[in-house]
Amino acid sequence: MTEQKIFFITDSACDIPPQEEAQLDNLCILPIPVTADGEGYYERESFTAEEFYDLIERCKEIPVTSHIPSITFQERYEQAWEKGYTHLVVLTIYSGASSMYHSALMARDAFLEEHPGAMTIEVIDSNCYTVGYGYPLMQACKKAQQGAEFEEVVAYIRDYLDRVRIYFSPFTLQYVKKSGRVSCTAAFVGELIGLRPVISAVGTTSVVEKVRGNAAILSSMEKMFAAQRSKKQENAPYMILVARDTPASQELAAACEKIAGYPPVGVYKIGAAITINTGPQIIGLTFLAD
């Protein structure tokens, strides 16, 4: 049996921290193109997360993201094959929000047409955003580094994605209004009475609750965590999500630790895919259900 050599590819909406990426020599993160006030950028390459928050606040028009073209995916497949990799796992942002998944599929078909049987390529639609798929990908990379086989890491990723929950909420409706997600009138009234949407980011984003005041955001997330978190898996991972640093992240972390009995994996920065529509004043939580 030929020894498996597994490589992983994803897009920058995964929000894997650069310091974590540096430890994973079997991972390639493709930068998502961003256009802001007519200028072209690439996430992670043109700016850090903090620099992007500054960019959002300076922009006259809300920035927009583009999908990574299939030729870019195919080039990375070629490079992995030339380096001797036998298996490839490609994990993308939710396909309903971007064409990245379809680009990756087209690239797989084109590559295998040119090189029949050269590699086993698994393309997975994460059906979610940010470290909801970035975290299991990091763990899968580490498992592969430690000798796990292709079927095992794919099964791990798919199980995680089946059970992941992601909730976030902006502390202001300013950017939600600019993005067109709500009308100016609704945003004005919402801001006036302190209304805040709590949004699910698994599949199509949807408002699961509307609360009044920023303190109520944390209370809502704590209740969802207590009710929905995995009770069967010991120390099931959970993470706090932020853009701009806020004391609320530590408050939420402390509250969730009290509920779970152990601390979060960490506090992770949310990137362009979400903050373009919500702005950098945001808090979120991701965890596993049963």
Give the structural class. Answer: alpha/beta
Domain count: the total is 2
Distance between the termini: 36 Å
CATH class of the largest domain: Alpha Beta
CATH topology tier name of the largest domain: Rossmann fold
Beta-strand percentage range: 15-25%
Can you count the beta strands?
A: 13
Give the biggest beta sheet: 6 strands, mixed
Overall mean pLDDT stands at 92
Radius of gyration: 19 Å
Shape: globular
Detail the poorly predicted runs.
Answer: 179-189
Q: How many helical stretches? A: 11
Along the chain, the helix and strand elements come as EHEEEHEHEHEHHEHHEEHEHEHE
CATH-derived architecture of the largest domain: 3-Layer(aba) Sandwich
Strand order, sheet with most strands: 10-9-8-13-11-12
DSSP helix fraction? 40-55%
List the helices and strands and how they pair.
Elements: E1 6-11, H1 18-21, E2 27-30, E3 33-36, E4 39-42, H2 49-58, E5 64-65, H3 70-82, E6 87-92, H4 100-114, E7 120-125, H5 131-145, H6 150-163, E8 164-170, H7 174-179, H8 184-193, E9 195-200, E10 206-212, H9 214-228, E11 238-242, H10 247-260, E12 267-269, H11 272-278, E13 282-288
Parallel strand pairs: 1-2, 1-6, 6-7, 11-12
Antiparallel strand pairs: 3-4, 3-5, 8-9, 8-13, 9-10, 11-13
Helix pairs in contact: 3-4, 5-6, 9-10
